[in-house]
Protein 1
Amino acid sequence: MEDTPYLTPIFYQKFFHTQIHPEFTADQILLEQLSKDNDTPDELMANLSNKPIPKGLVSNRSCSKDTYLRDPAVSRRALARAGHRCEIDTSHTSFLRKNSSHLYMEPHHLIPMAKTDHFGVSLNREQNIFSLCSNCHNQIHYGKKEDVQRLISKLFLSREQEICSILGRKITLEEIYQFYNVL
Ligand SMILES: [Zn+2]
Ligand SMILES: [Zn+2]
């Protein structure tokens, strides 16, 4: 009797949520990891290669689709590269992150990590990660179609070359709209 694990309804809720929304969960874990970090000297960006690199490690194989690991160091560099400002509008404000002298921003993978197998290369690259304020980040995930399109096109057009380079092929705005179901 003592060995029976005590499984609360909350546990079941969390467990099944993790199973159904592995990508959402992986992004939440990434945010948590970034919050636990202390400030580290921003690593040099000079050697950032635009060449495609192999798909990373899988963090969750229990579902029909693989979920690829988000390396927090890559996101940290992407936020530093943006100067810890929102890449939709640098005047968007936020609060100071704990253990840090930087504004709190959230990393967003423009080409969704869930499309890793579709491209066959790593999508966890600085070039694919944008620094967004919480409001813009939520809007790109949960906003109205026209607004989501506007945000995506602004981000994509600001880095089109780099994104095509890391994918190893051309990609159009329409293709990205499809990934977000806003075509
Ligand atoms: Zn996101
Ligand atoms: Zn913003």
Protein 2
Amino acid sequence: MDRIMEHPILGESPEKKIVTFTYDGKTLEGLEGEPIAVALRAAGVMVHRYTKKRHEPRGVFCAIGRCTDCVMIVNGKPNVRTCITPLEEGMTVQTQYGVTAKEEQ
Ligand code: FES
């Protein structure tokens, strides 16, 4: 995982439990309670969704739950803001195409 474990101002990161979740069918690991978007970023995932009309990729933009660029399908529910949703063991996370999991033709 690619993470800052010791920060010059904030100090050391507190110990957190490692959990597993699936991202588009792949098993990944993250830290329990961290935002889903942070776990994905640590695993190198930058694209969370594609826009409906122009099929353009989107990822984390505001990181505070205001813009919807980071929405994904989480446990079967679309439009979940992953930058403010805590990661839990066994979550299923999928790339969102428009408002669904699969690209529309
Ligand atoms: S990045 Fe803006 S709502 Fe998540």
Protein 3
Amino acid sequence: MQTYRLGRTGPDVSAVGLGCMGMSGMYGPSDRAESIATIHGALDAGVNLLDTGDFYGMGHNEMLIGEALKGRKREGAVISVKFGGLRDPVGGWNGFDGRPVAVKNFLSYTLQRLGVDYIDIYRPARLDPNVPIEDTVGAIADMVKAGYVRHIGLSEVGADTIRRAAAVAPIVDLQIEYSLISRGIEEKILPTTRELGISITAYGVLSRGLISGHWQKGRSATAGDFRAYSPRFQEGNIEQNLVLVEKLREIAEAKSVSVAQIAIAWVAAKGKDIVPIIGARRRDRLTEALGSRAVNLSPEDFEAIERAVPKDAAAGGRYPEHMLQHMDSEK
Ligand SMILES: NC(=O)c1ccc[n+]([C@@H]2O[C@H](COP(=O)([O-])OP(=O)(O)OC[C@H]3O[C@@H](n4cnc5c(N)ncnc54)[C@H](OP(=O)(O)O)[C@@H]3O)[C@@H](O)[C@H]2O)c1
């Protein structure tokens, strides 16, 4: 697997990363043994970047990764952890905590749950509106000096916050949604990360399965599945969005590849500074996702794909409105 250096200071990560969130309930029930087999399959295929958040299943996701990594070389994985999301016992969301004292607290629990003595990339999941980003990043930088964290990342923040953070310490990547149907970063955020030498680790590349070619209208999302309340999956929007998928399918079939592979290849081809993190939670999905590495897109393919799915063609926002309002990246 080809590797790329994130940011100017590393680490070196595989050209495709594995996002483990869906293995801990964010997309409905998942199978523990299959999840672990998927993580093993990814590592064995050369995928070293594993992404998690301490709030995914309230620690469940970190413990799962910890179990999967048992008996393996620690250096074989680049573990990216988001922190700061505050939860309640029924899975509700209560905002974000980016205070320096909270950073150290979150990190201590994360190290225990993962069973490791350092985190490769540590990042606040969202900007805490009550805490200057300088303070949050400064606290992570203290943990870098102490040896508990190797690199600092950001997540879903806008250009001004990226600049402020990068003035405090080296930032290796910004994790943010980027796909054929979520292209908001192209205007201000991507030029800023490029100017500052910060990579993008792109999530939602399949728009949570919507543009994977496997989602069908009428497939019900169970309680707790993000897609049950994601605007793009709701009646009135899903029909229009699936028309876009069918247009992509025509292009995919002409190239004898799958829709998901086209969607991933499109993001990956946007630059060496963009690494897609794919949310596979089964080995068959992982295999399909990794197959995207063999898809070569010609300038004509790019043109056809972007004609099939023009910028802003999606019906519905990428998050429900009340969530978008709190996202620094949307300001
Ligand atoms: N920084 C942030 O704010 C943030 C937010 C969200 C996610 N993330 C991270 O990014 C990772 C990926 O994001 P995402 O979950 O939105 O990912 P995604 O890759 O857009 O969607 C993943 C979903 O697509 C479906 N799918 C269909 N075919 C697939 C294939 N070949 N390979 C993979 N998935 C396929 C699967 O649903 P079924 O299994 O139901 O078919 C899967 O759960 C997450 O795991 C998490 O680590 C970060």
Protein 4
Amino acid sequence: MSYPLYVFKFRDGEPVPMKEAVIREVLGPVTVGGMPGRGLPEGWNLRAPDGGEAEVYGDATSLSFVHFSFGLILDKVAELARRTGAVVMPLDRPALLQREHDRRHLPDDDLRARAIVVPPSAWTGRAIQQVVRPVPEPRQRPLLPRFPYHSLAGVVAPTDEPCVCCGQERGWVYTGPVYGAEAPDEGICPYCIAFGKAAERYGATFNDLIDGEVPGEAAREILERTPGIPAWQSPRWLTHCGDGAEFLKPAGAGELAHFPDAVETLRRECTGWGWLPERVEEYLGALDADGPPTAYLFRCRVCDTRLAYSDFT
Ligand SMILES: [Zn+2]
Ligand SMILES: [Zn+2]
């Protein structure tokens, strides 16, 4: 780390000297070239057995460590502070105290307010590292919007980037197809699809072919406010009972085995291409959710029938 870490011992707001013998004893073994016969050098370099390094400046009343590594170097800093009764103060971070009692000796209110007491069992380089560079908590991502016609399978990914459309950090980005000359190919969040913002702003649609007749409002919902299908070829939206079906997921032969009605729609389609039964069955057996040929599984929102179509590259 390129900013300094200070080690001070305070009494009533004033720094007081740490025991020089202890400084020599703790830092001597990792001092490059060793300690001089007596006293402390003006400034010196440390190198620890794990390859970690630091530069040290100051004297027994105030030691600063700069360009320090995590690992054994910070363990040495922790040991030094523990044995001299000192406080570790990373720049712009809370000071680390060994006892609550040390808080009142700190020189100003802000330091006193922010200082953290680290119990003896945790008083190691790791505790210092936690304050210098906290390990980020796993991010809680917001709930995804619900789409009446799409399960979101295969078309969203976590991201920390803001959405190109709304500028918000939504935690999710849409990764499916986008249609429209003005529309960005990527970077739109699923909320901008759900709320129609991307459709309105860019004239974008996310689907462009509905396979069957549906009311105008359902068609607009599917084309403009529903994510697309993560397909290899131009996708098409299946319909049933006069409405758009709900897209469930890309599916392979194993999953489709649970949905004979869907397999039947696929079989009829292949037969319609003029394929002989043997070839049709071979093709159906080769369907794979992760690589072509792939089936796209839908569910009728009215009668719950499963439907599918398939494509290959
Ligand atoms: Zn957005
Ligand atoms: Zn139906």
